[in-house]
Amino acid sequence: MLTPNTVYPLLLGWVQALGVTPSAVTAQALAARLTALLCGQSLAPASLMRMLPSPTIVRARARYARVARTWHGPWLTSVWLTPLLVRAVLALVRPAGTPVLVLDTVRCGRWELLTVGLLWHRRVVLVGWAVLPYPWPKGRFTPTVIALLRQVGAAWPDEAAAPHLLADRGFPSRPLFQTLHDLHWGYTVRLSAGCRVSLHGAAIRVGDLYGAVPERWRREPVHYGAAGRGPLLQLLVGQGLVVLPHHQRDAGSLRARQYRGARRRHALRQKHPQRDAERSATLDRWVALLSTDQTVLAALRHYRLRWAIEGSYRDAQSGWDGRHGWDLEPTLSQQTTGEVVERIAGLWAVGLLVQSWVGDQLSQPTAPVRVQQVVASWTVHGRLSVFARGRLAFLDRSGGLTDWLGQTLAAGAVRLAATSVQPVSTAA
Fold first, then answer.
1. pLDDT tens, position by position, 360-399
2. Residue 333 falls inside a structural domain
3. DSSP assignment, residue 216?
4. Is the dihedral of CA 220, 176, 77, 17 positive or negative?
5. pTM as predicted
6. Which residues of 99-114 are buried (b: 16+ CB within 10 A; e: fewer)?
7. How many CB atoms lie within 10 A of CB 94?
8. Residue 277: which domain range?
9. Is residue 143 in a domain?
10. How many Å is the Cα radius of gyration of the chain?
11. For residue range 142-171, what is the model confidence (pLDDT) as tens digits?
């Protein structure tokens, strides 16, 4: 197991290659915080302060002060990091086809965190984020989403393929689709039953189309909203067949699905007593998508990829079993200012990139035999995400990954330094 003092110079190379800050002192400070995160596997201040690398013994109060100073300055804000992360992620991931971006939100106490991440190995790596207090201030949600997408769009390299954006039912709006049209991005966005569209000049609710043609999917050109303005969009409405993975076809998985269904109906009765919970559960099986894909199958395949963000949120919060996450929710819930929340999310984004890279390298068939043997000792089924593999690599106590992890982190920094990622200037 690598110690923080051993990991620190390797991660300093990542911070310098990313060009996060033009100041050598600030780069060292950020590398120390990144080291504390990956060695402690938690964003909680207590974990960060204990794992801060230091050549001498430092009292706990001084360590807490060092962690608190991390949240000052622009270095971990989305505006500062997004241009760097976009190019860094594209350099490390190197998507073969169309890059897929996932837009979603995660609520942490009094804060709502909006994130955009690039899909990678059924997880996402963050490239942009924004913070809103919860409950949302009236009229702030959609403008914040639009600003976030334009920020990522401005940082997207011209030489890279245009991405395809995935989003759930909470995001559709006329400004959203106009922004995606302006950015020349593809998209697949789900609509709720209550959304209104203009179909053949008539304003209708999407839910009115459910059940109209139960034998097949319906495909119609529409304008979003009742006014019939904006770009012409493609609406797909239907109900797909439920196809379960082999490992989810046993009696235990059936009981889990029945339990979740009962919880869903109970929540509907509690939150919306005026609605028919059984009918709402039936409507949930219908899907309405606005998509630039040319076929229904392509749109459905794209939309299924959206669930990758849920796994990344779980990794950042409680982990796969409630005990092995990065404590994002309790950490953000304690904060009193959005500025600090945004910077904590920035540390999460950079740490997620490094750990996902390590997990990806562990998954390669070209990994040394000794490394593959260590990975095989972690679990019987082998179904570990790149986040979980990266976590276990940083915490491995067998000693079999020590040399390999150091070489891999160094190789990642070299790859970043060889890309077009340029250090930011003080005038940025």
1. 999 999 999 999 999 999 999 888 999 999 999 999 988 8
2. no
3. S
4. positive
5. 0.90
6. bbbbbbbbebeebbbb
7. 9
8. 241-284
9. yes
10. 23
11. 999 999 999 999 999 999 999 999 999 999
